[in-house]
Amino acid sequence: MDKDPFKEYIKESEPNKRNKGYAWHTAIGLQAVDGLKTSAYLIHTAVRNIEGEISFQEANALLQSYYKENPSHDVNDRTEEADKVSARIAEILSEQAFSFTPNEYLSIHRRLFTGIYPHAGHIRDYNITKKEWVLDGATVIYGSATELRATLEYDFSEERKFSYRGLSMDEIIRHLAFFVSRLWQIHAFGEGNTRTTAVFFIKYLRTLGFDVTNDIFAENAWYFRNSLVRANYNDFTKGIHETTEYLELFLRNLMLGEDNPLHNRTLHISGAFKETEKPDIQDGKSDIEVLKADIDNRFTAKTTEHILKLREEFQGQTIFGRSDVMRVLDMKASRSSELLKEMVERGIIEPVSGFGKGKYRFRQQ
Fold it and tell me: What sequence ranges are listed for the domain Fido (predicted)?
């Protein structure tokens, strides 16, 4: 989010507004794990809910009506998904009810994605792979489609039997990192897995007594996902071992209020980006440094500047086209097309649909 209208509410002394502000802040921030951005209408609706003008049910109804009257004609535009899922996450996080069961996990997915994915609330029946920037294009080995329900049942059973009694906080965090990373790796759903896991995990942490009403999830959702990836990837031939160290840093910030730096570049398996790390660099500049290290030697200084500006504007997997390039860079149509073509050829972006006047997105970073 470029601007955050919720921080003042999070600082509010009035518990109801503070809790709703946190819920909305987290809900919107979590859309970043899939490169999605919410609309100004969603922000306006959220503020009305926090102020007590409308209920969550009314907020959801307003969004339903809004998109019925204003449907997108671009199949790659996922703003409607981001808006609706954000409102549903905020509602779930504002509820006290919770049960630590696989059915609750499936129910959260169903509530988040009904009307968005046809498989909402259903365990996937096919195997998947996902190319990861943090793994240099490799994929995590996800759970086998034929074993997903049994694997879910087993992991929940093992966690229910586990005793936290007598453990130090370091041991508790290490165990929770292991649990949530394994739950995520099962990847029970075809889409929406990380957002569902995050919502479930936040509610589970509350049952353990942790007051996780802060902005760590909201502002570091992409780091959270990348740390889950690193917790489930091995390549012994390259000396790479699965590790929860990054996830533990995230959880220490979330649960203990620590201030460990959470930079996505430090998770990349090549280690190449660690050399550019500076202790005082702003989080928002971190991803730009990653891209800059990758493109400096392949483009002119001016083109590099253009690409960095586009990457900052279209973060994650946000879809954009030639008209967007023209707007952001104040560039003519012909030059915008040339830049897009060059970026595709050099592997910086990938076409989603068509060329020239088509749609593109940055390769995962």
Answer: 100-252
Name the pTM for this structure.
0.75
CB-count exposure of residue 284 (10 Å: 0-12, 13-18, 19+): exposed
Distance CA 64, CA 88 (A): 12
pLDDT by residue (tens digit) across 110-131? 999 999 999 999 999 999 999 8
CA gap 176, 214 in Å, rounded: 18
Q: Which domains does the chain have, with CATH numbers?
A: 1-95 (no CATH), 98-269 (1.10.3290.10), 278-362 (1.10.10)
Least confident stretch, 136-145, 315-324, 345-354: 345-354
Closest C-alpha to 121, from 106, 104, 141, 101 = 106
Q: How far, CA to CA in Å, does 157 sit from each of 4, 153, 160, 162, 166? A: 39, 6, 5, 9, 21
Residues 34/315, Cβ–Cβ less than 8 Å: no
Q: Please check whether residue 356 is in contact with residue 338, taking contact to mean a CB–CB distance below 8 angstroms.
A: no
pLDDT tens column, 19-62: 899 999 999 999 988 888 899 999 999 999 999 999 999 999 99
